Amino acid sequence: MSDLSLPPRSALPDAGADTALAAYLGVSKRRFRLWVGGLLATLVLLLLWERIFIPIGSGEAGVLWSRLSDGTMMDRRYTEGYWVTWPWNRMAVYDLRYQEMHGKADVRTSDGLHVAIDVTIRYRPRASDLTMLHQAVGPRYRETVLWPDTIAALQQVVGSFKPEDLTVSGQSGLAQRVEAAARQSVERHWVDLDRVLITRVTLPERVQAQIQEKLADQQKVLAASLRRQTWLIEAEGAREFQARTGTALVKWRSVDALEKLAQSPNAKVVVLGGGKEMPFVLDPGSAESKSLQK
User: Fold this and answer.
1) Residue 3: is its pLDDT beyond 80?
2) What is the pLDDT of residues 228-246, one digit of tens each?
3) Which of 57, 63, 53, 48 is nearest to 85 (CA)?
4) Is there a domain that residue 229 lies in?
5) Chain centroid to CA 129: how far?
6) DSSP string, 202-214
7) Is the pTM of this model over 0.90?
8) Among the listed residues 199, 38, 189, the one whose alpha carbon sits nearest the alpha carbon of residue 121
9) Is 187 inside any structural domain?
10) What is the CA radius of gyration of the chain?
11) Is 2 a member of any domain?
12) Which domain holds residue 170?
């Protein structure tokens, strides 16, 4: 028989430590253990508070994923309020209000030139299909569905234009085309697309210079056309004046000019008449003017 010796008493755990501590605190052993258990439970509750008590704010809704059940709860959408769940479950909270997403896209026109376009998307997840959105796409639906579908529609629309035609179409007209092209694709993924806005279209510098030159030429042609129309109107007025008064317009203009000249602070001698019945002006310092003044 082998010799089995017991360890010394000092090496054994002190089984009466809780009893001694309870006696030191002046409480019974049972109550002391209840206090310790309550303290540990409170500690665990504080650590798991955010997983147990789930707040859902105004304009939000939640979808619950249960670890011990059937996964995503497809038949229930959690509305605003404070909800309590097991700490091993997961609650995904979605904002159902209208939101905006801003970004810049680099797309190509019909001739292969790159155009930078600033895009703003206004959207919101569809409340009635929130569980489907969570199961099929997830909380990152903006990066997974919304932005790629909108940029694909933008490329489709811009790809049918030449760079100079983008300025003719305008930012609002371009945005309407993109919105119409992206709406069906986005809404098929349980997201409602409210509006697509184009805030800036940046063309290549070479194309911008060509467009500015073309616009300047158009302005010159327009100015020349306006001048021609003005001359035609003045000529028509001159013909009508001569027809009604029987006076040559040149003679009328010469009389009007001499009248203004006579009112000048410089001394003048105005003589009416002459071989061709035209008024003429003599300088007061000339010999002819002095002889007439005598």
Assistant:
1) no
2) 777 778 767 767 766 776 6
3) 53
4) yes
5) 27
6) E--HHHHHHHHHH
7) no
8) 199
9) yes
10) 46
11) no
12) 99-203
